Amino acid sequence: MKLLIVEDNLAVRQLLRSLVEPLANEIDECGDGNDAVVLYESGRPDFVLMDIDLLGEMDGIAATRKIKAFERDAKIIIVTNYNKPDLRAEADKAGAFGYVLKENLFDVLELLQTNPNH
Fold first, then answer.
1. Which of 25, 80, 31 is nearest to 47 (CA)?
2. 2-113: CATH homologous superfamily?
3. pTM score
């Protein structure tokens, strides 16, 4: 499985990497929404783990929209601290595959493992 982790906090990015490493044969990382779009287009990962707050001008919701416009079947899991219904609705509208709170990181593994395509 090929993954892209998009997280501006290096410590959280490393934690996510260590969590998903047993499931992945390739992991790319970045902390910027624009970089996420470029890395998605060039690498075509099976899943993207996307934070909402990112470095640069493009947040995670906007990056999700842009990636989904490029590849409608992209599987993007929002991984965030924000437990807000309006942000969850915005992520759904942008086409996110899932929405996981950082306090429940093991839910990411569940989403990755229960997907029948991988």
1. 25
2. Response regulator (3.40.50.2300)
3. 0.94
